[in-house]
Specification:
CATH class of the largest domain: Mainly Alpha
Mean pLDDT: 84
Shape: elongated
Largest sheet: none
Number of domains: 2
Number of strands: 0
Structural class: mainly alpha
Distance between the termini: 79 Å
Helix content: over 70%
CATH topology of the largest domain: Receptor-associated Protein
Length: about 375
């Protein structure tokens, strides 16, 4: 458990002894610790069970605050407990802690408190957080191998340019022979890194900073996210990820009886892609005018496949749209899981081609002038 700083200070005053530096450092680090999605998942799962079993909300929050090991989360839960003990609603108490729980969770809890079905809403939130965590875990696991390979390739390439190429190309400088373009390019690139390493590094960092600033701007994000959706293989994966989030979030919100317009506005906040987010915001405006969900989404054929539009239309006609969206969410989550498992085998040939191309370029750049020199001496 994290150390309580106030208790430590009281003990210091009573005993006259100072707390060791490491303990104070540990306490400081625990104060700035983040609240992970796993902490939130644990909280929702256990709060749901306690509320469903009939335990008063304030008692449940107090119990959970005593169980959690994350000091920051412990403090938050204790504050929630104190508020609810005074008669403040859980929704109002959560709104005081913006940035911990997003608008989706707060709105769903508000709906649960109003309808008197808080336990059912907490169950939906738990499912939402759990599936979101699983989705992130799948993506992270699938991307670990390619990232490691790319970092290794980059490191080996820089090592070759800094330590190996200068020694080999020194031979060509002594002979004053006319070199092919590939060899000249490799020599100049190696010289830029070796002789102007600091300037090259600063230039690279500057380029990355400008690129990040560009994709964070509204126009840059719009262009970058459009390009991402068009990239072979990865574009399809990004679409499926956004569709899984869209269907799962919409299904959860509809089950809590939140107004459909607000449901779309909240859903837009959970989507990562600019164009899906904008489609949700524009659809919310159309829904205010009385347009059906299927008709509002049908204008975005590139983002929403016809099968989704058709199934949503069926759900609207039968009154089971939440169930159909839940089934669609499960389908896309399974699809993402399947793709992520096979992604390394898809990316591996691409990485091998890139690595082979880089090695072939270096080999040709070195061998070609040697071959030309050999011919001259014959």
């Amino acid at each position: 458990m994290a150390i309580d700083l106030q208790q430590v200070e009281k003990k210091e005053k009573k005993t006259g002894k100072k707390t060791p530096f490491l303990k104070k450092l540990y306490n400081s680090l625990s104060e700035i610790s983040t609240i992970s999605n796993k902490d939130k998942q644990f909280f929702m799962q256990n709060l749901k069970v306690m509320v469903k079993s009939g335990l008063p909300l304030d008692k449940a929050l107090k119990t959970l605050s005593q169980q959690t090991k994350n000091k920051k989360f412990k403090k938050l839960l204790f504050n929630l407990y104190k508020d609810t003990e005074k008669g403040v609603s859980l929704t109002e108490s959560l709104k005081k802690n913006k940035g911990i729980f997003n608008n989706l969770i707060v709105s769903m809890i508000e709906s649960g408190e109003i309808s008197g079905h808080l336990d059912e809403v907490l169950d939906q939130i738990y499912i939402q957080i759990k599936t979101s965590n699983e989705l992130k875990s799948r993506i992270r696991s699938a991307m670990t191998y390619p990232i490691i390979v790319i970092i290794a390739m980059t490191g080996i390439g820089i090592g070759m340019l800094v330590f190996v190429i200068p020694k080999i190309t020194a031979i060509f400088d002594q002979m004053n022979a006319e070199l092919p373009f590939a060899t000249r390019f490799l020599i100049n690139f190696s010289d830029a890194i070796v002789n102007n390493g600091l300037i090259t590094a600063l230039g690279f960092i500057g380029f990355i900073s400008l690129f990040i600033s560009f994709i964070k701007s509204k126009k840059g994000k719009k262009i970058f996210h459009y390009v991402l959706l068009r990239i072979p293989v990865f574009g399809a994966i990004i679409k499926k990820i956004n569709l899984a989030k869209f269907t799962r979030t919409l299904s959860s919100l509809i089950k809590t009886d939140i107004p459909i317009v607000k449901t779309f506005e909240i859903t837009s906040e959970t989507l990562s892609n600019y164009h899906y987010k904008k489609a949700m915001q524009e659809s919310a405006i159309k829904l205010k005018e009385g347009v059906n969900i299927s008709d509002a989404l049908s204008e975005y054929e590139i983002l929403f496949p016809p099968v989704i539009i058709q199934m949503i239309s069926t759900g609207e006609q039968t009154g089971k749209i939440d169930e159909i969206l839940g089934e669609l969410a499960s389908f896309y989550e399974d699809e993402i899981d399947r793709i992520m498992k096979s992604l390394p085998s898809i990316i591996e040939p691409i990485l091998m081609l890139l690595l082979g191309g880089a090695v072939a370029f270096m080999a040709l750049a070195i061998i070609m002038p040697m071959y030309n020199l050999t011919e001259q001496f014959q």
